[in-house]
């Protein structure tokens, strides 16, 4: 079987409204307005053939964005295209695109009242690249009983079944939306290892949405951060890691070196202060820190994500 080219994806100025809100004027006429906005002018490009971490706080719009790519949702306005480089198309009601896109949501999308084996057969018929041998092996690794119905499985085993479907589909665009929920730590780490191994052997585009950033940041090649319906940043993991650094030491010395920098976070214990600053330290700052006994440190992606999306805003 010829391995299909990995799919890329792009959103241009996408808005998604859900629901309607009805109110009345003083004269009794009714006004109808959109009740909520999930995405508000979101624009982003997902590179084909890489693993991208999709990060955002609860309600930021992550799941809506991923659902758009899988044609589970249509945008209120703006454009969405998915496909191999140079051949991207609107995924909505597009069998060629949707058969090559696998979205695994935390909610499941399984045949709950039939045996697990029936769910596997369903996806095998739906996905041209389905690998039954991989599915069987992963279910054995995750200890999922195919004779049971998904509804009878624990939450962790259901999550493991979803992860199996995502990897065994071998879809050119594989989207894993909080697929780890319910898994215990050993199972999550087994999943991460299996994902990397399968990706290395069968390259495709993988979008991984997760709140456990500290666990999965080692997997990411690119990072997209969504904040209140907009794309806050979209760049390589290396570029994101260079967005901040920390200074730890005597308060007066730290404040002097940090002067003029945007402060993303500050905490103090006695006379010792640690600040997280935006950007990368220059040679002068490193020299000043060394002379003053101030430690210069890297900031984990999870910490940067938390600070950059702080609804209270960072100090300046």
**Share in helix:** 25-40%
Provide the domain count: 2
State the end-to-end CA separation.
56 Å
CATH homologous superfamily label of the largest domain: P-loop containing nucleotide triphosphate hydrolases
> At the third CATH level, what is the topology name of the largest domain?
Rossmann fold
Low-confidence stretches: none
Structural class: alpha/beta
Number of DSSP strand runs? 13
Number of helical segments with 4 or more residues: 11
What pattern of helices and strands is seen along the backbone?
EEEHEHEHHHEHEHEEHEHEEHEH
Structural summary, described in words:
- By secondary structure, the protein is an alpha/beta fold.
- It folds into 2 domains: 7-25 and 34-239, 3-Layer(aba) Sandwich (Rossmann fold), CATH 3.40.50.300; 242-308, Alpha-Beta Plaits (2-Layer Sandwich).
- It has 11 helices and 13 strands.
- Strands 5-6-7-3-8-9 form a 6-stranded mixed beta sheet, with helices on both faces. A 4-stranded antiparallel beta sheet has the order 11-12-10-13, sandwiched between helices. Strands 2-1-4 form a 3-stranded antiparallel beta sheet.
- α6 links the parallel β6 and β7 (205-209).
- α9 runs antiparallel to α10.
- It is globular and about 65 Å long.
- It starts with 6 loop residues before the first strand and ends in an 8-residue tail after the last helix.
């Amino acid at each position: 079987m010829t391995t299909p080219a990995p799919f890329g994806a792009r959103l241009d100025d996408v808005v998604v409204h859900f629901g309607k809100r009805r109110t009345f004027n003083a004269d009794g006429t009714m006004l109808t307005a959109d009740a909520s906005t999930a995405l508000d002018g979101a624009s982003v490009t997902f590179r084909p053939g890489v693993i991208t971490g999709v990060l955002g706080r609860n309600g930021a719009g992550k799941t809506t964005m991923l659902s758009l790519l899988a044609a589970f949702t249509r945008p209120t306005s703006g454009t969405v295209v998915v496909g191999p480089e140079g051949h991207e198309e609107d995924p909505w009601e597009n069998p060629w695109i949707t058969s090559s896109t696998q979205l695994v949501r935390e909610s499941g999308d399984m045949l709950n009242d039939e045996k697990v084996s029936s769910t596997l057969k369903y996806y095998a018929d739906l996905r041209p690249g389905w690998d039954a041998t991989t599915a069987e092996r992963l279910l054995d690794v995750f200890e999922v009983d195919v004779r049971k119905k998904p509804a009878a499985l624990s939450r962790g085993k259901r999550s493991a079944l979803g992860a199996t479907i995502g990897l065994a589909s071998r879809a050119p665009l594989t989207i894993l939306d909080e697929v780890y929920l319910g898994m215990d730590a050993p199972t999550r780490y087994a999943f991460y290892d299996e994902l990397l191994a399968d990706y290395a052997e069968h390259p495709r585009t993988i979008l991984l949405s997760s709140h456990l950033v500290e666990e999965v940041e080692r997997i990411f090649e690119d990072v997209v951060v969504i904040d209140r319906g907009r794309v806050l940043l979209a760049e390589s993991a290396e570029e994101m890691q260079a967005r901040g650094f920390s200074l730890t030491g005597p308060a007066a010395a730290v404040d002097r070196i940090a002067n003029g920098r945007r402060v993303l976070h500050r905490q103090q214990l006695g006379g010792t202060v640690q600040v997280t600053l935006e950007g990368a330290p220059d040679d002068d700052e490193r020299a000043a820190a060394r002379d003053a006994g101030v430690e210069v440190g890297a900031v984990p992606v999870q910490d940067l994500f938390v600070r950059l999306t702080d609804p209270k805003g960072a100090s300046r």
